[in-house]
């Protein structure tokens, strides 16, 4: 030690010397002593020793460096939650809109350690975690693959280094603990060792379990968390478990299955997943499939969609080929959670397969349920035509005497289809009737009830029933919040926009849209972000604040171009045309209108709704400097087909177009009509209408209308 230290001092006297020691926690005592001796203050040489190590180094050598001329101890903790999430999202590119829960699970496995997070995501990507919908489709994260254990050479090496320092019996105990769970109590370890002992567990039971566990904690292989122990990192635990031999694995999993089967003192939420893991690992496939299905259904009921999807997928890999009932349940469950995760095409595929399984089982109710589920998923994709087709198929199967739950579900689906077609009176009546049917059904009818309340919240303001809409949405928000149902909480916030518009509360409407977008991003549902950005842009546009609208409409256009599965109509680009036409930028309006027309001509585009077609016609007349007769015909059409504030917008666009064409009397008449409509129709256009009126009246200080 002294000789090595003196040699380092001589090198440092000849020229300044830096010694960099990585993984110092693996260094032997002699090496650390030599470095410490070389750096003693009395040596007075230009020597810098940088030792990098895990917390185990400070535990083993707490005074390391204290006698040096100068010592600095720096502790580098894991990345914070936000930094870890940002790193994770970058590593997952080009996939976007990844559910926040999926990001959180990756961070949990790496414990926020950057190198481990990079290794984990790279390993999972190599096994297909990030996928493309089709050759030219969007990229997404296959969230049901998150629990896979990829090949991670770095982590395997770290595990080997950890185990190499342990006596064989203690290493066997470390492998045993690794095979059990992320965190275990001493009682669980002791109970499973007792089960192993009954079978003659050999080296696995050669040490007292309490003593062995305590020794692993002292060596920092395990850490204590309240009354439990765990490996420092879940990934390290995976690697240690993978190092176990096949006989060790089989013995531990059999013993653990027997132990957890009878461990009545462990809460079901912990016991069942552990029982399922060990049943699967020791080849009890039917038992494991049944357990995972039970767990997945419970997770779906708690709206934990990422975890539920993972377990439904496990069920499908474990089921026997002839278990059609299990296949139906798992496919339907996975389809339901997938559309809530924004994986619409995969959801439609699963629900279609579940419907086929129901037909094979002659389960008419199950088939109807799947058709209604598909109708809902297609509605989220804005494919209202296909959604209505599924509804009609479900109605044909249901006949005249469906069960109470199916009657409520059919009624809410009918109401939704009517509202999508602009049949406000009939649609509102149907969703109110659905709420009445669902109310007495309890948990079984919850989702139908909350959907009916949310849809009613959008429809009733159109009929002037603002207070009823506010009450219904208030109840929807309360029951969705109580159940942790983020999806329908978001929907209620979005639809409350109509109430705020009716009350002239633009600020509250924008706040709800911002919250709606945040929830959509957390869920990984790009469709929610699209709707929220579009709505925020339209609210700013209607209020006469085009500059505030532009960032939102640009983001909506970006989503619209890249995600045809949620934006089948070029509505954001049409909004861009409307905005530029209103401010009088005809060149920009014409350019955007041409893109709208190109999108409408594509094979994948759906037809514009009648109200949107009226808006498109209004900007076309504006840009073509159409005459009074053409505007008269469009205004007549608008009275029949436009919704919400759109009739006001059409009349105002006519007034401004007439002013630009020099038809001042027509401009004043159209503006008076717009103001009369604004007095009857709930809107947030007062500021904008005042600006337009000032233009027409030619008030001093107002911006001229560009020609």
Keywords summarizing the entry:
about 700 residues, mainly alpha, Arc Repressor Mutant, subunit A, 3-stranded antiparallel beta sheet, two-stranded parallel sheet, 35 helices, globular
Give the structure's gist in a few sentences.
Helix content is 68%, strand content 4%.
Please give a structural write-up:
- This protein is mainly alpha-helical and 707 residues long.
- Among the domains are: 2-60, no CATH class; 81-145, no CATH class; 153-283, Arc Repressor Mutant, subunit A (Orthogonal Bundle), CATH 1.10.10; 534-697, Serine Threonine Protein Phosphatase 5, Tetratricopeptide repeat (Alpha Horseshoe).
- The strands form 3 sheets. The chain has a 3-stranded antiparallel β-sheet. Strands 1-2 form a two-stranded parallel ribbon.
- The longest helix is centred in the last third of the chain and has 18 residues, at 466-483.
- The chain starts with a helix and ends in a 10-residue tail after the last helix.
């Amino acid at each position: 030690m002294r000789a090595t230290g003196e040699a380092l001092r001589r090198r440092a006297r000849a020229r300044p010397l830096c010694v960099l020691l990585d993984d110092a926690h693996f260094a032997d005592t002699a090496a650390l002593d030599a470095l410490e001796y070389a750096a003693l203050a009395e040596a007075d040489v230009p020597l810098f020793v940088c030792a990098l190590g895990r917390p185990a180094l400070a535990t083993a050598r707490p005074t390391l460096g204290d006698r040096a001329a100068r010592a600095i101890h720096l502790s580098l903790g894991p990345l914070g939650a936000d930094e870890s999430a940002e790193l994770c999202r970058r590593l997952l590119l080009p996939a976007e809109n990844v559910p926040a829960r999926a990001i959180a699970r990756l961070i949990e496995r790496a414990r926020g350690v950057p190198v481990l997070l990079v290794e984990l995501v790279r390993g999972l990507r190599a096994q297909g975690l990030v996928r493309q919908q089709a050759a030219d489709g969007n990229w997404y994260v296959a969230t049901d693959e998150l629990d896979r254990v990829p090949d991670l050479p770095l982590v395997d090496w770290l595990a080997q280094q950890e185990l190499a320092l342990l006596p064989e019996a203690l290493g066997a105990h470390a492998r045993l603990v690794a095979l059990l769970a992320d965190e275990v109590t001493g009682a669980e370890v002791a109970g499973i060792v007792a089960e192993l002992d009954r079978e003659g567990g050999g080296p696995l039971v050669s040490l007292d379990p309490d003593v062995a566990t305590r020794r692993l904690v002292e060596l920092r292989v395990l850490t204590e968390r309240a009354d439990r122990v765990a490996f420092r990192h879940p990934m390290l635990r995976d690697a240690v478990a993978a190092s176990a031999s096949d006989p060790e694995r089989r013995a531990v999993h059999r013993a653990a299955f027997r132990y957890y089967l009878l461990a009545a003192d462990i809460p079901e939420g912990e016991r069942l997943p552990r029982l399922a893991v060990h049943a699967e690992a020791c080849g009890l496939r039917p038992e494991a499939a049944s357990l995972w299905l039970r767990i997945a259904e419970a997770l779906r009921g708690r709206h934990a969609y990422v975890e539920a999807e993972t377990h439904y997928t496990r069920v499908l890999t474990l089921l026997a080929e002839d278990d059609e009932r299990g296949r139906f349940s798992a496919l339907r469950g996975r389809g339901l959670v997938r559309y809530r995760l924004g994986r619409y095409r995969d959801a439609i595929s699963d629900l279609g397969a579940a419907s086929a399984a129901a037909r094979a089982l002659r389960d008419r109710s199950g088939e109807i349920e799947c058709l209604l589920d598909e109708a809902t998923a297609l509605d989220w994709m804005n494919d209202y035509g296909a959604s209505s087709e599924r509804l009609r198929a479900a109605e044909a199967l249901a006949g005249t005497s469906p069960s109470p739950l199916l009657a409520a579900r059919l009624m809410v689906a009918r109401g939704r289809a009517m509202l999508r077609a602009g049949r406000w009176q009939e649609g509102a009546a149907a969703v109110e009737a659905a709420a009445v049917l669902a109310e007495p059904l309890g948990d079984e009818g919850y989702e139908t009830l909350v959907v009916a309340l949310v849809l009613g919240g959008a429809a009733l303001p159109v009929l002037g029933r603002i207070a009823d809409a506010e009450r219904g949405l208030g109840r929807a928000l309360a029951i969705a919040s109580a159940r942790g149902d983020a999806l329908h909480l978001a929907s209620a916030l979005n639809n409350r926009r109509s109430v705020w518009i009716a009350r002239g509360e633009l600020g509250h409407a924008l706040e709800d849209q911002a919250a709606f977008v945040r929830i959509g991003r957390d869920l990984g549902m790009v469709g929610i972000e699209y709707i929220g950005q579009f709505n925020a842009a339209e609210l700013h546009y209607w209020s006469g604040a085009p500059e505030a609208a532009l960032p939102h409409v640009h983001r909506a256009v970006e989503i619209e171009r890249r995600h045809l599965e949620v934006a089948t109509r070029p509505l954001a680009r049409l909004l861009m045309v409307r905005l530029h036409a209103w401010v009088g930028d005809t060149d920009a309006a014409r350019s955007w209108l041409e893109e709208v027309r190109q999108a409408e001509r594509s094979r994948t585009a759906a037809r514009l709704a009648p109200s949107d077609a009226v808006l498109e016609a209004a900007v076309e007349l504006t840009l073509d400097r159409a005459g009074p007769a053409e505007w008269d015909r469009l205004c007549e059409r608008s009275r029949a087909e436009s919704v919400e504030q759109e009739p006001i917008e059409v009349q105002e666009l006519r007034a401004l177009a007439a002013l630009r064409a020099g038809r001042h009397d027509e401009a004043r008449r159209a503006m008076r009509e717009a103001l009369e409509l604004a007095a009857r129709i709930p809107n947030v256009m007062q500021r904008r209408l005042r600006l337009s009126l000032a233009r027409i009246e030619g008030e001093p200080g107002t911006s001229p209308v560009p020609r």
